[in-house]
From TrEMBL:
Coiled coil: none
Top-level taxon: Bacteria
Phylogenetic lineage: Bacteria, Bacillati, Bacillota, Clostridia, Eubacteriales
Pfam families xref list: DUF4096 (PF13340)
Protein name per UniProt: Putative transposase of IS4/5 family DUF4096
UniProt domain Insertion element IS402-like: residue ranges: 10-78
Length: 90
């Protein structure tokens, strides 16, 4: 299956996956990779969370995890990490 423009590549994900905390929810929780791709989809499409396709899981879960990552500084840490790595890709 071809990579979609709004999805992070597996190679890119491997660089940041350890910066995320594991969710403290139930066994059927959506993995962080899927949640991050959902956030990228929302940002790329400029859609409301409620318009998120079902393939990403519950929009409420995505919205909740986004809020935790934003408020806890996880997203800032990730973007700072990615920004520092960008200088090595000449």
């Amino acid at each position: 299956m071809p990579q979609k423009r709004y999805e992070i590549l597996n190679e890119q994900w491997s660089q940041i996956k350890d910066l995320f905390h594991m969710p403290k929810t139930g066994l059927h929780s959506i993995d962080n990779h899927t949640i991050f791709n959902a956030i990228l989809w929302i940002s790329r499409i400029r859609a409301a969370c409620r318009d998120l396709p079902e393939c990403f899981g519950s929009w409420k879960t995505v919205y909740s995890r986004f809020g935790k990552w934003r408020n806890g500084g996880t997203l800032l840490t990730i973007f700072q990490h990615l920004n520092s790595e960008a200088f090595y890709f000449h």
